[in-house]
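User: What would this chain look like folded?
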Amino acid sequence: MPHSTTSPTPRRPHRTMRPFTAAAGTPVRPAKAALNYLAVCVVVIAVVWASLAAAGISLNFDFVAQYRVRIWDGFCMTVGISAASLVLSLVLGVLVAAGQGARFLPLRYLCDFYVKIIRGTPLIVQVYFFYYIIGTAWGIDNRVLAGIIILSLFSGAYIAEIVRGSLLSLDAGQMEAARAVGFTRAQTLRYVVAPQLVARTLPALTGQVASIIKDSSLLSVIAVIELTQTMREITATNYNFFGGFLLLGALYLVLTLPIMAVSHHFEKRLDYAH
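Assistant: Here's the prediction, encoded as C-alpha cells.
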C-alpha cells in the first residue's frame, strides 16, 4: 500500500502586538491613542524636569493659594475679552468677506487693504498703534474696550479670509441649479449657500477661537489686567518667574486644548479635509 503524504497545514502568521505603530492614514483605536499620548507626555515631562534640574531651578507653586483670587479674576477677564472679541470679529469678518466681492470698487479695495495691512503686521504693533494713536484721537481710554476692539480688528481679517475662501470654494453650478428651480436670492443663500458655508468654515473658525485666546495675552502691553498681566504683577512681587509662567501656560492650555479638540471633532464630523 503506497504511503500517502499530506501537505502540512499552512500556519497563520502570528500577530504581534504593536502598540506604538500604525499604518499611515488608518484610524487608531482610542485605547492605543491614549497609550501613545501618555507615553509622549511622560517623555516631555521627563525632559522638562531634567532640564530644570540641570539648570538648578526648583519649582514652587505655593503662591497659588495666596493669589488665587487675582489669578481667577485674570482668568475670567481673558475669557470675557476673548468671547467679546470673537463675536465682534465674526461680524466684522463676514462683512469684510462680503465687501471683498462688492461691485463698488472703493469698498472692495478698502476691505482688501484692511486684510493685507492687518495680516501683514504684528499684533503688538497694532496694539500700540490703535491704543496710543487711534484710541487717543477718538477718546477711547477704557483699556478693556480698546483691547476688545484691537483684538476684533486683528482676528476679523483672518476670519474674513476664511469666509472668503469658503465662498470661493462653492460650486457655481449649484447656484445656477437653484435659480433654475425658481429659488429666490434669499432662498439660495438660506438653503444652498449657508449650509455649505457652515460646513466649510466651522472647523477653521473653531480653531480661530484658540488663536484669539492666545493673542489676548499681548493686551498686557497696554496694562489690561487679563491673565498674562496678572501673572506678571504676581511674579514681580514674589520673583517666582518660572513657577508663575509655567502656571500661566497651563491655564492657557486649559482654555485652548478643549477648543482644539472641538475643532478636530468638526473636521472629522463635517469631512472638512475632503
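The longest helix spans residues 68-99. If you want, I can go into more detail on any region.
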